[in-house]
What we know:
Elements: H1 3-28, H2 36-64, H3 71-98, H4 103-129, H5 132-139
Helix pairs in contact: 1-2, 1-3, 2-3, 2-4, 3-4
Bound molecules: protoporphyrin IX containing FE (HEM) (2 copies).
Amino acid sequence: xxxxxxxxxxxxxxxxxxxxxxxxxxxxxxxxxxxxxxxxxxxxxxxxxxxxxxxxxxxxxxxxxxxxxxxxxxxxxxxxxxxxxxxxxxxxxxxxxxxxxxxxxxxxxxxxxxxxxxxxxxxxxxxxxxxxxxxxxxxxxxxxxxxxxxxxx
Length: 153
Ligand code: HEM
Ligand code: HEM
């Protein structure tokens, strides 16, 4: 199993732990609802999307019978997502106290998170299409294709 699959799933669990802890803190101490955007993104960007990233990187290549297009990009994505979300959470916590001065932190985190998401889209899209040689053969007229190509249906 690729290291970033394990780490995406573990970081999803860690973000869930942090997100629900903040949720309980907000429920118990309603003034802390000012931190709602941090709670929302810990749970939705941290737990939900990171779980999908981790499971997706493991399952999609097996589902389509093609290797993952780029493991390096998958590893870079783990860093972008986690550093990005950590910065976003810091920015969301700062915003009610320092106003616009939180924007550089939040914006940098947001750009990192978005780049991570774009890396996932690109990597999974290319994985579904499969290696170039497979694509060329699959797109060739049936008469010029070798018999019994994998995923030829
Ligand atoms: C023990 C678990 C949780 C507790 C105690 C909790 C508590 C809260 C509280 C107190 C609010 C603020 C409500 C308000 O504005 O009046 C809130 C908002 C929110 N929570 Fe949670 N939460 C929990 C788990 C989750 C999870 C797992 C998710 C997502 C997967 C989630 C998603 C949201 C969203 C999207 C909002 C914002 C809703 C809106 O914009 O109106 N929460 N939560
Ligand atoms: C690059 C990724 C993302 C960035 C930069 C981003 C940024 C933001 C910002 C700046 C806000 C406004 C917060 C405020 O009210 O002060 C917001 C709100 C919200 N975002 Fe995101 N977001 C991202 C991804 C997501 C994803 C993937 C989800 C859901 C799966 C999501 C769900 C929400 C929700 C539910 C709110 C309303 C929060 C509330 O009720 O307070 N966001 N987002």
